[in-house]
User: What shape does this take?
Amino acid sequence: MINSRLAVAIHILTLIASRKDQVEMTSEFIAGSVNTNPVVIRRIIGMLRKADILKTQAGVAGAVLARNPDQITLLDVYRAVEPRDELFSIHEDPNPNCPVGKRIQGSLDHIFHHAQSMMESELSKKTIKDILTSMFA
Assistant: This one.
């Protein structure tokens, strides 16, 4: 199963963007919406801050968007929270003496690369504003 970090990051950003008053929300408040531990939220907020998607201030609880919601693509979010370059990976060290083991990586590389490219293309077409619009239309 692919982890839910991307979905949680999008949830965080959408929640923050939904607040017209730009009140800074604490990780505890956000964790209540996501239904997870505040530590998870702080970790993801840190990733989003490092990618210049969110702003935080030392000594002040909460986070605010660093850009307008229509300027934050889901691809930006994906790249911020996913540590690997590739969504799919092939198991390490298949048996080179097996007819399948010695050929599996070459057979799957193209398929996995194409799937990754298609996913990234779709994510680049949608923004946090699109998510807000679809939720509150």
